[in-house]
Design brief:
Distance between the termini: 40 Å
Number of domains: 1
CATH topology: Muramoyl-pentapeptide Carboxypeptidase, domain 2
Order of helices and strands: HHEEEEHEHEHEHEHH
Shape: globular
Helix content: 25-40%
Bound molecules: zinc ion
Largest sheet: 4 strands, antiparallel
Strand content: 5-15%
Oligomer: single chain
CATH architecture: 2-Layer Sandwich
CATH class: Alpha Beta
Radius of gyration: 18 Å
Number of strands: 8
Length: 252
């Protein structure tokens, strides 16, 4: 109950993800049983004394060739740094205020491909009895700038949840913050919606963009609500919810 109250209180004041203040629940306060239910989907086999140590799985990558360096400057920043057809927008690969989705669709101004995939995903969740609602979709450079300034003033301790202007995927219209309409912030991971997305989002071309424990690579705190559309062919490599786009594209 207390989680719901906290989350509800948060939902009232938050404006969204890397734009939204997150002044509450840290994962450490979540009961361990709940946490393992979400993050340990399969049972761990008991090691037998004769079992050999398995070699670590290689990181799935579309190619072994190193991507071209991001050398954009000036007007070139009007176009995102793109590797193997996947636009990458982050603190290291920024875009200018001029960039916006080419085919914005629907109330959240998502890129049309992402909007269509999101509609398919939401319908599939609905048929499983799970509700997916959009907390935040496209955000302009100016909106992100204002949000980051507010965060610096009001939530300096939580700044790793926020993107500076030009460093937010939301400006591409390819990223969404999702929830069930009730429980926001980190407890969102433990809702039916959070669990369903963890399990199925990749089937619809979306990846959990800021996995737990990968802040040093992504530049952002773990965000169980932030999903990024990259297309099904690539997203199906992200089933573990621990792979980052940077690792996948050879940028990490
Ligand atoms: Zn977000």
């Amino acid at each position: 109950m207390i989680w719901r109250s906290l989350a509800l209180a948060a939902a009232l004041v938050l404006t969204g993800c890397t734009a939204g203040p997150v002044a509450l629940p840290v994962p450490e306060r979540v009961p361990a049983t709940t946490r393992s239910a979400v993050h340990t989907p399969s049972a761990t086999p008991t090691p037998s004394p004769t079992a050999t140590t398995p070699s670590p799985k290689p990181t799935p990558k579309p190619t072994s060739t190193a991507p071209a360096k991001d050398t954009r400057k000036g007007a070139q920043l009007n176009t995102p740094y793109t590797v193997l057809g996947i636009p990458v927008v982050s603190k290291k690969h920024r875009i200018s205020a001029a960039y916006a989705p080419k085919n914005p669709t629907g109330a959240y101004h998502l890129e049309s491909t992402a909007a269509a995939a999101l509609a398919r995903m939401a319908a599939a969740a609905r048929s499983d009895g799970v509700r997916i609602r959009v907390h935040s979709g496209y955000r302009s450079w100016a909106a992100q700038f204002a949000s980051y300034q507010r965060a610096k003033r009001n939530y300096p301790q939580n700044l790793s949840f926020y993107a500076p202007a030009g460093a937010s995927e939301h400006q591409t219209g390819l990223a969404v913050d999702l929830w069930d309409g009730v429980t926001w912030s980190l407890p969102m991971a433990y809702t039916a919606t959070g669990r369903w997305l963890f399990k199925h989002a990749h089937e619809y071309g979306f990846v959990l963009r800021y996995p737990k424990g990968k802040t040093n690579i992504t530049g952002y705190h773990y965000e169980p609500w932030h999903y990024r559309y990259i297309g099904k062919a690539d997203a199906t490599k992200f089933t573990s919810n621990s792979l980052t786009l940077e690792e996948y594209l050879g940028l990490a």
